[in-house]
Fold:
Amino acid sequence: MKSLSFDLAVSLIAGIFVCLIVLPMLALFTATSFGELINQFRSPLVLSAIAISLETSLIVVLLALCLGIPVAYLLAMKSFKGKEILDTLVDLPICMPPLVAGLALLILLGGNSKFGSMLRNCGIDLIFSKKGIIIAQLFVSIPFLIKSARNAFESINKNVINASLTLGASKFYTFKTILLPLARNGIYTGMIMTWARALGEFGATSMVAGCIPFKTETMTVAIYQNAMSGELAASTAVALLLLVFSFTLLLIFKSRVRGQAG
Amino acid sequence: MKALGDLKKYKAFLLTLLVCLISSTAFAKKESKELLVFAGAGMRLPLNEIGKKFEKKYGVKVVYDYEGSGRLGNKILVGQSPDVFIPGSDKWAKILKEKGHVKDYTSVAYHTPVIITPKGNGKVNSLGDFLDSNNRLVLGDVKACAIGGASAAIFKKAGLEESKMNVRAKGQAVKQLVLWIEGNNADASIVWKADAVQSGKVRIVDIPEQYNFKSIIPVCQMVTHKKETNEYIHYLLGIEGKAIFKKHGFEVVE
Structure:
């Protein structure tokens, strides 16, 4: 019975959490209509914004994998001078307001900076392009992959790695055939979080991306613009499309990962 | 029953949670001698000065919430009510009057659009230069900010087609456009004169009167408001208030 009351208390608190998330979502449904949803889903502008959001956020996940996994490996497996600093640097983009992140990228890559004008002279224009969106999204979302992959690497039994190395396998071979497969679920989780964060990113993106319809306008920018012009129903409809879409994709991905793990 | 009895053990915890949830609202009581003003972010400098002087004179504190007019307008639409609303154009004043939130409005000043370029960049010197595809432009988004609508109206008056321009980016707020030009990320933009003057880091090119599109800055009295509101609006529209607006680069309504 004692454990029952504990369960009851925990469930009650979980219930409060569910309300915290679900009630605002339901409120969104009341601010729009089914017709408006269909209307927005048919609009070429919204479809292009969805496509641009998807394209950029998926590239971000791939880039995050390439850059994040080595960092996660370093943090989990090695002890070195400045490890604490690297670890804190990973947290920094999470606590930084996205607008500030966008501002920082704009200053670094903009026309007034030496780096920015050097890139432009080489024909690489990052500001106001899809590349700009990708950099902004990567900046704010990569910590999620690193943190998740690091935890996964850390949870691997060190004896397994030592056994592989003692038996003569190279470090790369051990990483490829033992570490990566064992950390798979953690990395998948990190990929999902990174993708979700990149998809919902607005603050940093709006500073460095051009927000030009059909070229550099993402879904979050479309939502903002509709809301700012008083078209709350249209804005909410696009927001709901984004939410329903992300929820479904996340659910499918998670159940697949769980299925594989089982 | 036993389960319920055991629940008492967690009473302290649940109570703390409850206190946390309600404290935010309980402590947020407004003082009676305080006015809440929603204002467009572009009016921060003159309104801050007016607020301080008004408080000194009348003993009423003015609390400002500065944001894009659209964001503030939406806040009012979903139920938040300030005592006074001063958006960057009359677009939101009209919307809110129609929906019964705003009682009436009077204009205090104009927002006058100007062309801005980075300092030392002489590529754009008139509206006509906007059609040169070598000139990279950034413009306000028509939906997101009032300056977007104003620049579209100017192009229409001057017979220029935006589709023929090399528009690299659409800003979500006028300050963003100023920032982009300050940072030398484009060759020209159209912004409000007050924002250009306040920046001090851009070159200003005036737009000929016949093509320009001035936008009024309305002071809106809300349907429900405190009695101190009238004093504030009176002060704002009086000689002192308008002089402060003028000082910060605004053209005032005489």
